[in-house]
Every structure is written in C-alpha cells, then in structure tokens.
Amino acid sequence: MELNTLLKIYETLLSGNLARIKCFTQMILGLIISGNIQQHKCSLGFQGNAHQESTCRRIRRFLSKFSFGKAEIAKALVLMIGLSGPMGLSLDRTNWKFGILEINLLVLAVVVNPQFSFPLFWVALPKAGNSNFKERIDLLQLFIKTFGVKKILFFTGDREFIGKKWIDFLMKEKVPFFIRIKENRLIHNGETKKHLTLFFKHLQIGEKRFLECDLDGHHIYLAGTRSSEGELVIVMSNQDKREKILSIYKNRWTIERLFFNCKTNVFNLEDTHLKDLFRIENLMAVVASAMVLSFLVGEHQERKRPTSYKRTVKSPAYSTFRRGFDFIRQLLIKSFQKALDLLSFLLSENLPLFKKVQL
Fold first, then answer.
1. What's the CA gap between 142 and 132, in Å, rounded?
2. CATH class held by domain 73-255
3. Phi/psi zone of residue 348: left (φ > 0), alpha (ψ -120 to 50 degrees), beta?
C-alpha cells in the first residue's frame, strides 16, 4: 500500500509527527470503508500485518492522548474542500444516549451548497439539553479568531439560539445573522408589547410578511411565512434583506442533513462506545474529514457525467456527498491504491502549496 502521497498532503495540512498523522489518515479511510465509527471497524483502514487488537489499541491511544488544534483542523478542512471566500455558517446540536450517559454535541457547520454542510468547529457539552450563550459565543469566537468575522457570509440558527446576551454579541461583532424566533416572543408595538404571532397569524401557506422592530435594544428585521405543514416560521435578522431573509435561513436545513449523515445515514456516530468528551471531540475530526473527502469525490463523479444528464435530472436520487461516499467506499474495497490515488489527486487540486498529483 502506498500511503506516501496522501500522507504528504496531510503533512502540509496538519502539524505533529508522521505517526500521528498516519494514524489519523488511516482512521479516516477505515471509517469510509466500514461506514461505522467503531474502533474495530475503523481498523479496516490500517492495511498491513498488524493484528486488529493492536490496531484498536493504537486508535484508542490516538483518541485519548493526541489532539490537533481546533483551529488547525478547521483550516485543514476549508483548504481540503477548496473554499476561499466568505462562508455561510449554521449552528445546531445533536445528541444521543449511551446507556445513561447523555452525549451532546454543539456544532458550527459550513454550508457548501443547499444540500451539504460539514462540521467546522464543535464542542462536546458536559450536560444534556440546550447550550447557553457562553458556549455558543465561545464556539463562534473560535471561527472569528481563526478566519475573521469578514469571512462570515451569513449565520443561521434555530429557535434554541436566542437570548439578549447572545444577540448582543452577534450585533457587537457585526455577524450577519438569520435566526428563527419563537412566535410568542413579545415585541414593542407603540407603548405596549404584543406577541409576534399577532402580526403573522393571518398568513396562509406560502404567504410572507416583513416587519421592522426594536428587540432587546437592537433594530431587527423580521420575515414570516407559513410552511407547507401549516407551521408559522418567523426569522429575525440584523440585515435589511427583506425577500432574502427566509431563503437564506433555509440553509439551516443542511446541518440537519449533516447530523443525519453523521449518524444513521452513513457513519453511525451513535454506535461509538466512547464516554470521554475529549475523545469524542477527536473522533469528530475523523468524521468531518471523511465527510469532506466523500463530498470531493462526489463532485468529481458529477463533473464526469454527461451535460445532457445534468440538464434533464432536476432531483437526483443521491446527494453529491452520498454519491461520493458510495463510490470511494467501493473503490477502497476493490482497489485500495486507486482510491488513494484519486483522493490525493482531488486534494492536490485544492491545495496551492502542494504539487498537483496526476491520476
């Protein structure tokens, strides 16, 4: 097995000794091959004569003792996928149980297109339930310190991500946000306060209404509509974009898809038996990298499709990510070396400091 080219690429992205980077790379390959995050299945990426138990010990050692910096992993993921301009962000939580233990991940994701986003920063919360404003601020500040606030094209969040201190922070940092707000929220209407629902309850399915108001000391723009299920959706923003507020907020859906891909659809994240939060956060770096590689392969496969096919198929049966995951997984099983060559080629396309690999 020739891992050398792929390892050289990862060495340009990550600091640390070669053994650590090699273990990380092989875990990513094992995750794609098996479609499961459990250690004995990730060990499938470790080609060679080592016994499975010794490989699993190596994986456990990596997860418990080593950690690439959060900013370092984030920069690597952005370079891998080839993003250069401002990025759309979405914040949400996913949680599951292992026995009586509650595992709760707060994730800041980058929206690549209307169907796909990938984890950029994440934190395993030492509790069940909603995040607080400090936990959200800490995570978003990681992005701002790493990339700068001007790299935020938009920020989306659901009704969980509210509160005066949180909104004060977003306004102070000039983060362009589009966050759903609870319809029973009180807003000033002249000298009185009224529930938001009174201004939007008349809307029929598909109808929209736009308002401006002062909320918690800030001038806010509101857009409301009624979904196809009859649910009232009200989104607040600090951007005077009127017709675009609701459409930008729709990008939040991609993080729901991200969690679906991380869990039941592809990587079976809930199958992990890890309890330690540090190890779970390290494991998410493997998952995020596998997602990015799968998406790159999916894009490559779609570029090879006939133009006539792209024109006639409006709703493809598979997402770009799923198409790429299925293809590279099969290729890793059938011809490990060809799969490595393809991944090296696709990564080198997006890395200006690395000489382009030829297929």
1. 16
2. alpha beta
3. alpha
